[in-house]
Design a protein that fits this description.
The structure holds 2 protein chains of 2 kinds. Chain A is about 10% helix and about 40% strand. Chain A has 3 helices and 18 strands. In chain A, strands 2, 3, 4, 5, 6, 7, 8, 9, 12, 13, 14, 16, 17 and 18 form a 14-stranded mixed β-sheet that branches. In chain A, strands 10-11-15 form a 3-stranded antiparallel β-sheet, with no helix packed on it. In chain A, β5 (about 80-85) and β6 form a beta hairpin. Chain A starts with a helix and ends with a strand. Chain B contains 6 helices and 48 strands. Chain B has a 22-stranded antiparallel β-barrel. A 5-stranded mixed β-sheet of chain B has the order 9-16-17-12-13, with no helix packed on it. Chain B is globular and about 100 Å long. The chains are: A mainly beta, B mainly beta. The interface between A and B is large, with 57 and 63 residues. β1 of chain A pairs antiparallel with β47 of chain B.
Chain lengths: ~280, ~775
């Protein structure tokens, strides 16, 4: 009898508490679709990354290359370029077209075997204009006071991203800022996202306080790069969803990656950039 | 006032007329078990000539007003012998009825006449009322009797993952269930991460689950009311029961104190801590690197005092807690601790003012709290620590009256006032350089909830009976009032031997629960409605057909329902909800969602007999829509499942042996899987990084689940004449792989040291394999 119980217990223990279901059985791949990705930045000529989707059940180095695609670039609804293939799945304009602030751009992509796709027009925002920068010593703090022009219309949904980085040493810890009084809507690693509602006036004052603590005494003779990004809503939504997806731990539902490509996937988004280097 | 509300009032008072009679007198009293003195709830009391009747209320009180003259009074209750008494009714009369338990195989009188059969058809529909004995006989995991798991075998009720305790009723979420233990709200039902519910059936007398057609006396939740009544304790003799099972041990003792007072104490606890003592010693001595200990307990206690036939006082208490501690020094040493539990208390005073007016006054206390802490040992004598606490606490006062002016009207009216104190988050942190804790995210929100109601169960004709009710609720938080009229109506039409029932109810809920999609994790955070997050509301209509077959002691019903929910909240896709929230929580949830749930339920139930049990089948749809989730498109809710069927059978083989089995089938739950993979390209980069894309929420169905559990009760009498019961049960008899949760994974096929194939698979994790268990209980 004891052998029977020993076998029974062994059987239960060996009866694995997991079961593997091949995904293809319960959810077949929907088929390949065109993927269009591009960042529209005034300082760079327009290029677009055109690929295709693959089955989510493929493993390893999967091939997303899409040959024989026809890519058209439109500015304010007018065709301005039939783009040509470049390296690494990029398509570029023959005449090095740079996106202009205030203009709307969109792409149409067709392929002999896949469904045509079209991106939703994206408008390039204006960069922030920095009026003044002051360094102020306040007790244990060093305050960097920016005054910049909030050139986003009050009813628009563009965002400003402030990115702060040290140019000198990775050991410089710039973690204490008093810019929270402007209520950033999102805080990343050394970056802060504000939407336009965070700034009530056209002219905005933003304070960055560096705390002179025991660990942060040695900030003298260093340089700090402060970058002001002006994002479109599409760009913001795409970056947020992509970050959520990449950092997903499994508690909840994975993020739906933002897409503004009709009929396919990907995102064509725009931003503008103003950088400022401060010598401490 | 809204036009429809005015119209409703008009109709309500039109039906509210009392039927005039000649010289009338009232028979009233309590109906109790003759052996224990326990009051019996929802017993039928009627006169046998015209079959006018009533039911006993939750305190066993009944009142029936009849014309002067000869009366044969009868009473019937499931599992008990029928009662009949003839009397000449000349004045108001008190008759306390004592029923004797029906012995199986004994020839007893059952309600068999047509009139009696019809009498049992009340206006209340969408209600599950299972005898405690039947609940205790259903085999469950590791022999742990579990009320909620048994309710999940009934139509319209489903659970999430296998083995978890929380239930979804007619497409609602678990936080939309109002769970009352002796009138006090129970906020969290999980012991042992949901494998055991907090309700100890040894201490329970009556369980009623209302899924729709809500009477006006209930409110505050959208989807269901689970009204649980604790036993009062025997007034005749001291008796008790003790049991030992695979997970926990339990004991119950109850009895009289003098002639007017009775008490009950019941407790449960796990003994894992004792078994783990050697492991703790090994951990402390350094011979073991990890130590994981789990403990839970719960205690139910109740004391009742009968001043006289008119005045009674009750005090009941429940407290239960879970503790889990993990210590690990295999790498960097840390201690992680989780602690959660409920405390409820109820003080009730009942007074029979007149034979027609019964008053119930109640003061309730309810608290749920969870606590997490982590200590990282980062150097000699140095620690980095954090802890998080979330809590909700209620004090409530209730006044309720039952007024039975005549045999045609059963009026209930009253009011409630609740003082809520929400402490959704207290987060404290310290590092190795500081001695004290810094407090973050601490916020406290008090709120007041009030409601007044009136309802009348009106017998208009022999074939038409309605229950019209009106509830007015109000909620005060952050210096703002939210109010809502909540009309309720139900009707029953008799058609030959069949009863057609219909109901409409409007419910409003002022409280929300923020929780992750974990597996019974006790990380619930309760928050009140705010100016940004409005109260949830739901409207439900239900239509049903029911029939009683007294010759077989069988009830059968078929019901269809449609429920529309508004102002729902949900975490958006991409949000990972952990254990804390801050005072900006409104910004992290998707707001103003809508939901609709509809379906068809079929239920055949035999409550007593040598062969008893039930068949249940539910066909249902359950969808949600949020502007910011699933691209604004409708998606299946987490608890959506098309088919849900259960067969529960108890068969008394001999006087000592009872076989029981429960088989359940559920359609697969929806999960979110990627539709494709593509690459993302960073600005200025030349190659992309792969990304899986999940454009749609709950876009895939898991395989269906089904499971068979069986049990065998073997009763034997000890040498000292006490009744002992051995229970042998097998959970998941045919070892079906039903998942607790799922995750995407990669399956490798090896040939020697070389991987020859890789395949993406969905891993069903934590399914409970075939699991035999044995338990023993002894009555004394």
């Amino acid at each position: 009898m004891k052998y029977f119980f020993a076998l029974l217990i062994t059987g239960i223990i060996c009866s694995a508490c997991t079961k593997e279901i091949p995904l293809k059985e319960i959810y077949p791949f929907e088929g390949e679709k065109i993927v269009v990705n591009a960042y529209l930045i005034p300082s760079e000529s327009i290029s677009v990354h055109v690929t295709k989707t693959v089955s989510p059940y493929e493993l390893g180095e999967f091939d997303v290359s899409l040959h024989d695609a026809e890519v058209e670039l439109y500015e304010d609804g007018v065709l301005i370029s039939e783009m040509i293939p470049d390296e690494d799945n990029f398509y570029i304009t023959q005449e090095n077209v740079y996106p202009a602030v205030g203009k709307q751009y969109h792409f149409k992509v067709s392929h002999p075997t896949l469904d045509d796709v079209q991106t939703i027009p994206e408008c390039v925002p204006a960069a922030a204009v920095i009026n003044s920068v002051e360094l102020i010593e306040i007790d244990e703090l060093l305050r960097i006071q920016f005054n910049f022009l909030d050139n986003v219309e009050d009813d628009a949904y563009s965002l400003t991203v402030l990115s702060i980085d040290s140019l000198n040493s990775e050991r410089a810890r710039l973690t204490d800022f008093s810019i929270f009084e402007n209520n950033p809507i999102l805080c990343g690693v050394r970056s802060f996202y504000f939407d336009d509602s965070c700034f009530d006036e056209p002219s905005v004052t933003l304070n960055i306080d560096l705390e002179r603590t025991r660990e942060h005494l040695e900030y003298e003779n260093r340089s700090i790069l402060v970058s002001f990004y002006t994002l479109t809503e599409s760009n913001y939504q795409y970056e947020i969803s992509r970050n959520q997806l990449e950092d997903f731990y499994g508690f909840g539902d994975p993020a739906a990656l933002f897409s503004n490509v009709t009929g396919g996937y990907g995102a064509v988004t725009a931003y503008n950039l103003q950088e400022y280097i401060i010598e401490l | 006032m809204h036009y429809y509300t005015k119209l409703y009032f008009l109709l309500f008072f039109c039906f509210f007329g009392f039927v005039a009679h000649g010289q009338m007198h009232t028979i009233s009293g309590y109906i109790t078990d003759i052996a224990t003195g326990e009051t019996l709830i929802n017993a039928n009391i009627y006169e046998t000539q015209n079959y006018k009747g009533t039911t006993s209320n939750e305190y066993g009180f009944y009142s029936i007003t009849l014309p002067e003259g000869g009366v044969e009074l009868a009473a019937a209750y499931v599992g008990y012998k029928n009662f009949k008494q003839t009397l000449q009714l000349k004045a108001d009369t008190v008759i306390n009825i004592q029923l004797d338990i029906e012995i199986l195989n004994e020839v007893v009188i059952v309600a068999s006449s047509k009139e009696e059969r019809l009498l049992q058809q009340s206006t209340q529909m969408s209600t599950i009322n299972l005898p405690i004995e039947q609940i205790e006989s259903v085999p469950v995991i590791l022999g742990e009797r579990d009320l909620l798991k048994v309710l999940a075998y009934t139509p319209g009720v489903s659970t999430g993952a296998q083995g978890t305790a929380e239930i979804s009723v007619r497409g609602g979420t678990p936080d939309q269930n109002l769970i009352l233990l002796d009138g006090a709200t129970v906020y969290n039902v999980n012991h042992l991460y949901g494998f055991v519910s907090v309700f100890n059936t040894d201490a329970l007398k009556n369980v009623e689950l209302i899924k729709g057609g809500f009477p006006a006396r209930y409110g505050g939740r959208l989807s269901s009311v689970l009204d649980i009544t604790m036993k009062e304790g025997s007034t005749e003799k001291v008796q008790g029961e003790a049991g030992i099972g695979a997970i926990s041990s339990r004991f119950t003792i109850n009895g009289p104190i003098g002639e007017r007072t009775s008490y009950l104490i019941s407790g449960r606890g796990v003994y894992l801590s004792l078994l783990n003592l050697p492991l703790l010693y090994m951990y402390n001595s350094g011979s073991r690197a990890t130590y994981n200990n789990y403990n839970f307990y719960d205690v139910n206690a109740k004391i009742n005092h009968k001043f006289n036939d008119k005045n009674r006082l009750y005090f009941s208490l429940y407290t239960g807690h879970d503790y889990n501690i993990v210590k690990d020094k295999s790498d960097d040493e840390f201690h992680f601790n989780m602690d959660w539990g409920n405390v409820t208390g109820t003080l009730r005073y009942n007074r029979m003012f007149t034979p027609k007016l019964f008053g119930k006054f109640m003061l309730n206390y309810s608290q749920y709290k969870n606590y997490f802490s982590n200590i990282d040992f980062v150097g000699v004598g140095k620690t980095s620590e954090y802890n998080s606490t979330s809590k909700v606490r209620d004090w409530s006062a209730n006044i309720n009256f039952d007024y039975l002016p005549n045999a045609s009207n059963y009026i209930k009216f009253g009011g409630t006032a609740i003082h809520h104190m929400y402490k959704p988050s207290l987060y404290q942190i310290k590092n190795e350089y500081t001695t004290g804790f810094d407090t973050l995210n601490e916020f406290v929100t008090p709120a007041i909830e009030m409601a007044a109601y009136i309802e009348d169960d009106i017998t208009l004709t022999k074939w038409l009976k309605i229950n019209a009710g009106f509830r007015y609720s109000a909620f005060y938080v952050d210096e703002q009032w939210y109010t809502s009229p909540e009309p309720r109506i139900a009707a029953r039409i008799l058609l030959q031997d069949w009863a057609i029932k219909g109901s409409y109810s409007y419910m409003q809920q002022y409280i929300h629960r923020l929780t992750n999609n974990g597996i019974g994790f006790p990380s619930d955070v309760w928050v009140p409605s705010t100016s940004i997050v409005p109260p949830q509301r739901a409207q439900q209509v239900a239509l049903g057909l029911s029939k009683t077959f007294p010759e077989y002691a069988l009830d059968a019903s078929i019901e269809t329902y449609y429920k529309k929910m508004e102002n729902l909240i949900e975490f958006p896709q991409g949000t990972e909800a952990f254990f804390t929230v801050d005072d900006q929580w409104e910004e992290s949830v998707a707001l103003k969602g809508t939901g609709e749930a509809y379906g068809l339920e079929f239920f055949v139930h035999r409550k007593k007999g040598k062969l008893n049990g039930w068949l249940a089948y539910t066909l249902s749809w359950n969808n949600r829509q949020f502007e910011t989730i699933n691209q604004g498109m409708t998606y299946p809710a987490n608890y959506d499942g098309r088919h849900d069927a259960s067969v529960v059978v108890n068969y008394k083989l001999t006087s000592k042996l009872t076989f029981s089995s429960a088989w359940t089938f559920k359609s697969g739950a929806p999960i979110t899987l990627p539709t494709a993979s593509h690459v993302h390209i960073y600005p200025g980069a030349v190659s992309g990084i792969p990304l899986e894309i999940y454009p749609f929420k709950n876009n895939v169905r898991l395989p269906s689940t089904h499971r068979l559990d069986i049990g065998l009760d073997f009763k034997r009498t000890t040498k000292r004449g006490r009744n002992g019961t051995w229970n042998f049960s097998i959970y998941n008899v045919y070892n079906r792989a039903n998942s607790l949760y799922t995750e995407l994974s990669t399956k490798y096929t090896w040939s020697g040291f070389e991987i020859i194939d890789r395949q993406r698979v969905l891993r069903q994790v934590g399914y409970i394999p075939i699991m035999p268990s044995v338990s023993y209980s002894l009555e004394f």
